[in-house]
Write a structure and sequence with these properties.
Strand content: under 5%
Radius of gyration: 29 Å
Distance between the termini: 77 Å
């Protein structure tokens, strides 16, 4: 068995992987969209250019920006392919035992690794030629514009893909999971992932577990404040607490989904608008993107008191969301000031914790102190919501009457 045979087997195995075809389909869709966008922009340029409204240098700068943007997108797909395609090759074959059938062959290990690497190099070379060359060809065919040093650009893109390929094939991304302190009281454990699907699965799992712990934590705070609430909770009981925690957990998941939808609804059209405005002025494009970020942060602030409303004022989900928006709007200076104070204090606590981290058991004391102060800040948000919500009920009730408990 020679290096060429290993190379052919690697290419044949890569063609069976869904990630390859998925990224190639995304690449074809991107090229189609790039063609449509370039055709539309070229028609507009020809229309205004014929009336001498656009200077030739401005037209060339616009086409150059579009070409660079298209190459950025193509480069992103190529890099993703160079990382995702070989990342589980050696580790997966070792885990499943497939590598043993190759290890018994009269083939040196370096030749086995070289054959696999060359197989992926050919796959990446073809992908870079299709995507990167496709973007340049579309720009030249539609607009008649071509980059002066396009061979150098394609070569650099291919070189970047080779670097990511080599790193991914050797399994070095496990070292990029995060910095490991020099001194730790307990030896850290590195867990090897199982590819992109496993990574996404773990991300979703840890997010759901984190929201469940948040639901437990928030419910404990709500029960601690139940005596002075506008709508007191029933007496504490294990079964009732578990049911209420599960209900809160589902609502937190719904709130996270709502935030993701808001971010996507704002980001996608604003990104397209910023891309077109950048053709006129890069300042306009940056300003629009900055405005989108500010808008997203502003909306998140309006929804920041929704978890407190879920627990202190149990009502339907969207009603609680509307209550949070109204409470923030009516108490804007105080509500915004509290959020800013909490953010600043948390950042200072994190900085102090990192500065005081000595890698010994003294770090545990720092963590406990950090948790104690962070809990106090969280309770402050609950108390703020409780007091302002009760004040809103009293102000909306007729004079001389007590507010109706929800």
């Amino acid at each position: 068995m020679s290096i060429v045979t290993i190379m052919r087997l690697t290419m044949r195995e890569a063609l069976r992987r869904k990630v390859l075809w998925g990224l190639l389909i995304l690449g074809v869709i991107f090229l189609l969209l790039y063609t449509l966008g370039m055709s539309f922009i070229n028609q507009q340029v020809m229309r205004y250019g014929s009336s001498n409204r656009l200077e030739p240098n401005m037209i060339r700068s616009g086409y150059s920006f579009l070409l660079i943007s298209g190459l950025y997108a193509a480069n992103f797909l190529i890099v993703m392919l160079s990382v995702l395609l070989p990342i589980d090759t050696l580790a997966g074959e070792i885990g499943t035992g497939t590598i043993q059938s190759l290890a018994v062959k009269p083939l040196a290990r370096r030749n086995l690794l070289l054959g696999k690497w060359l197989g992926f190099v050919i796959m990446l070379g073809a992908s870079a030629l299709i995507l990167g060359g496709g973007v340049m060809a579309i720009t030249w065919l539609v607009a008649g514009y071509s980059a002066a040093n396009w061979p150098t650009g394609l070569s650099v893109m291919f070189l970047e893909a080779l670097i990511f390929l080599s790193v991914s094939l050797l399994g070095v991304p496990t070292l990029m999971a995060g910095p490991i302190p020099d001194k730790t009281p307990i030896a850290p454990t590195v867990v090897d992932g199982g590819g992109l699907g496993a990574w996404l699965g773990l991300l979703v799992l840890f997010t759901l577990v984190g929201l469940l712990l948040t639901a437990i934590f928030y419910n404990l705070i709500a029960y601690a404040l139940r005596r002075s609430m506008a709508a007191p909770l029933p007496p504490f009981g294990p079964s009732r607490f578990v049911a209420r925690t599960g209900h809160t957990w589902l609502r937190l998941v719904a709130l996270l989904a709502l935030l993701l939808v808001i971010v996507l609804v704002i980001t996608i059209p604003v990104a397209l608008l910023a891309g077109f405005l950048t053709l006129l002025s890069q300042t306009f494009g940056v300003f629009v993107m900055f405005g989108a970020v500010v808008l997203i942060l502003w909306l998140i602030m309006f929804l920041s008191y929704t978890p407190q409303g879920m627990l202190l004022n149990p009502r339907p989900f969207f009603t609680v969301v509307v209550d949070s928006v109204r409470l923030f709007q009516r108490n804007l200076p105080a509500a915004l000031g509290l959020l800013i104070v909490i953010f600043v204090v948390r950042q200072l606590l994190s900085a102090i914790l990192l500065r005081a981290d000595s890698g010994t058991w003294v770090t545990a004391i720092n963590i406990l102190a950090h948790a104690y102060i962070a809990t106090a800040l969280t309770v402050a948000m609950f108390i703020f919501y409780r007091d302002r919500f009760v004040a809103t009920l009293r102000s909306s009730s007729p004079a001389g009457e007590e507010p109706v408990k929800q």
